[in-house]
Design goal:
- About 35% of the residues lie in helices and about 25% in strands.
- The chain has 8 helices and 9 strands.
- It folds into 2 domains: about 100 residues, no CATH class; about 90 residues, Alpha-Beta Plaits (2-Layer Sandwich).
- By secondary structure, the protein is an alpha+beta fold.
- A hairpin with a 2-residue loop joins strand 1 and strand 2.
Length: about 200
């Protein structure tokens, strides 16, 4: 189980199929809200509280979707019971722990079925300053951009990535927990520096 806080009132929780199997839960049971599923949910909430300080208080909204081979992603949002407070009132809210008040960049992931295709992207984007990391999982490679701004700042990047790979909904949290980190920071530039043929 992996927890990410993506907003003040929202967390994303990844549960692998292996995690479900250990609890004796079949993926089809998730939608039946049985006793095991309820126990799993409250375990997730305890983990969210202990790891990122997310506490369930009042009404919540729960969204869940499955990834065919990876697991289940669950997004839990605290729903305001009263109208949103103004900016001035928020500044006076002494009970709020602002250590978690941040905007987490949206992660953009691309999947490659061959390492050679990752190298082709690296060679094509030679010289571009792109913040990204490379992970390996089950024989495939995943290039994770630090955020959508990387695509905005490099107009040709999306074209090159989709020419040699596919957009993927595999989350960074999943890759960090179950994959292997190959390169961090400027992964494409590192690959280009290491493998590019001298002119």
């Amino acid at each position: 189980m992996k927890v990410e806080r993506i907003a003040r009132d929202k967390v994303r929780i990844f549960v692998s199929y292996e995690d479900l199997a250990l609890r004796g839960i079949d993926k089809d049971e998730l939608w039946r809200n049985g006793k095991k599923v309820q126990e799993l949910f409250w375990d997730m909430m305890e983990t969210a509280y202990s790891e990122v300080g997310f506490e369930v208080s009042g009404p919540i909204a729960v969204e869940a979707f499955t990834m065919p081979s990876e697991g289940v992603v669950i997004i839990v949002t605290r729903v305001p019971a009263v109208p949103p407070i103004s900016d001035e009132e928020e500044e006076l809210d002494e009970d709020y722990d602002d250590s978690y008040d941040f905007e987490q960049p949206q992660v953009t992931t691309f999947k490659f079925y061959d390492f050679e295709d990752v190298l082709r992207v690296a060679f094509a984007m030679n010289g571009e300053h792109i913040l990204c990391s490379l992970y390996a999982y089950e024989g495939n490679y995943y290039l994770v951009l630090n955020g959508e701004e990387e695509l905005d700042q490099n107009p040709n990047l999306h074209y090159v990535l989709t020419e040699y790979g596919d957009a993927s909904n595999t989350s960074l949290a999943f890759l960090q927990e179950y994959g292997k980190c190959v390169l961090t920071e400027q992964a494409l530039q590192q690959l280009n520096d290491k493998f590019a043929k001298p002119e």
